[in-house]
Amino acid sequence: MYDIARENRLPDRVGIGYKCQHFNALMEAPGPVHWLEVHAENYMGDGGRPIAQLRALSERFPISVHGVGLSIGGEGPLDPEHLARLRHLCDWLGPASFSEHLAWSTHGDHFLNDLLPLPYTEATLARVCTHIDTLQEAIGRQMLLENPSTYLAFENSTMDEVTFLSEIAKRTGCGLLLDVNNVFVSATNQNWDPVAYIDAFPLAQVGEIHLGGHDEEEDEHGAPLLIDSHGREVVDPVWTLYAHTIARAGAKPTLIEWDTDVPDFPVLAAEAARAASLLHPATA
Amino acid sequence: MTQRDFTAAILDPARPVPEGLTDPQGRPALRRFNVYRNNVAASLTDALETGFPALLKLLGPDYFRSLAALFLRAHPPRSRILSHYGAEMPAFLAAFEPLAKYPYLADVARLELALRRSYHAADAAPLATGGLDPAALMALTPRLAPATMILSSPHPVLGIWRHNMDPDAPRPAPRAEAVLIARPGFDPVPHLLPAGGPALAGALDGRTTLGLALERAVAAVPGMDVSAVLTLMLSTGALTLSDTGDTP
Hints:
The structure holds two protein chains of two kinds.
Chain A: H1 4-7, E1 14-17, H2 23-28, E2 35-39, H3 49-58, E3 63-66, H4 80-93, E4 97-101, E5 104-107, E6 110-116, H5 122-139, E7 144-146, E8 153-154, H6 161-172, E9 175-179, H7 180-190, H8 194-200, E10 206-212, E11 215-218, E12 224-227, H9 236-249, E13 254-257, H10 265-279
Parallel strand pairs in A: 1-2, 1-13, 2-3, 3-4, 4-7, 7-9, 9-10, 10-13
Antiparallel strand pairs in A: 5-6, 11-12
Chain B: H1 3-11, E1 21-22, H2 30-51, H3 53-59, H4 61-74, H5 89-94, H6 105-120, H7 134-139, E2 143-144, E3 149-153, H8 157-165, E4 177-182, E5 189-192, H9 197-203, H10 210-220, H11 226-235, E6 239-240
Antiparallel strand pairs in B: 2-6, 3-4, 4-5
Helix pairs in contact in B: 2-4, 3-4, 3-6, 3-8, 9-10
């Protein structure tokens, strides 16, 4: 079995999702940013600027590799070619952490480039665990599995999301990536209590926390429908939920995600500083 | 509900929401399902806009997005690496009846795909010619660097691309054009490739000497300006002696 403290070498500090326009700022004056997360699929080319930047950044920062395309929840087997690409990236980069999503994105030949939802059933549980075993064996290390943002419910689900994720961690030895914004988004969309979700979550298995912004819409019945957009600041209720999480879990590596309408570096640095003030209140 | 049903409904907005998906009260969930439809369409449209900036300028944002909506349903990505997305765009445009009056669009798409491939290609040390006398140079057996791309078009494809990417670029002249894309550092740059350039590029395979390759190119294109072609290829770092380039 994997030991989360030994496998996951990210510091208990704040990182940001890397965007190439912030390269110079990060190399010159990273401020409150202590580590970076990159999307695995953006670094699978043969060379050029993306690979050169990642090499340079990895000499200065711990790097978390975050896969967005493996389709761990897919009905079919994992793509052996993609597993080999992930292994190659982990081999040459030696990242401090590797994570992926509880979701699916590929069916047959078609890659849909979104994190699509799963029913929480015994059959899904068995399949996801098999896929995680395969992945962990392929990359030779523990992975962290991220809780999703969801927008609708499956009639055939037989267990709640926290039970489902806890069971995966228990069976596969994987760690968990707790996206606090996703908890807030899903809880709002699904009528769950977000605090109860955090309180039931197996926090000892958490190797990383995500924070990001979401958009607010409504469904056809006038119920709030939150969309996980990663395109704006973290909202106050999510900061509150994060503070509650840290109070229970202790300090954890925490990432600010901002993937669309990416702002200038100082805006991201301000979000990172706000996270740091909650993560280590004594030193802020 | 299977993932096959879900996928089909994502890609075809006319299909109903698959069975078994509801809101928390068990009611039908069209708006909620549409979040996934929108995410897929918006993210793939973004990828196409990023990948085809000159096409976006040529067609205008509204037309481009409508075209993207048709394209992404006809050709959802087959690779999880999104920088590969859109390889079918030239053929899609060539067969797209409403744009039949603009046959150069497919070649502009081909040029933009080649620029993207060049950007992600392996690094390779450019052929260094400093201090070599002409005989020694002609005895070398270079090949195109991994980031070097060659493209020939019956249309002024580079002129059209430049005119859309740079407001100060002149209007394209009506003519056939060949293009050499070289990547001296990290940014691919397209150059007009004089006649005979594609023939020389085709003859450089890493085993043939530069001298013999030039002879073959001149035989194929007797009027070629050897000096102009060679100067362009050497000055832009388009050639290398490396077998594979440096990959991580």
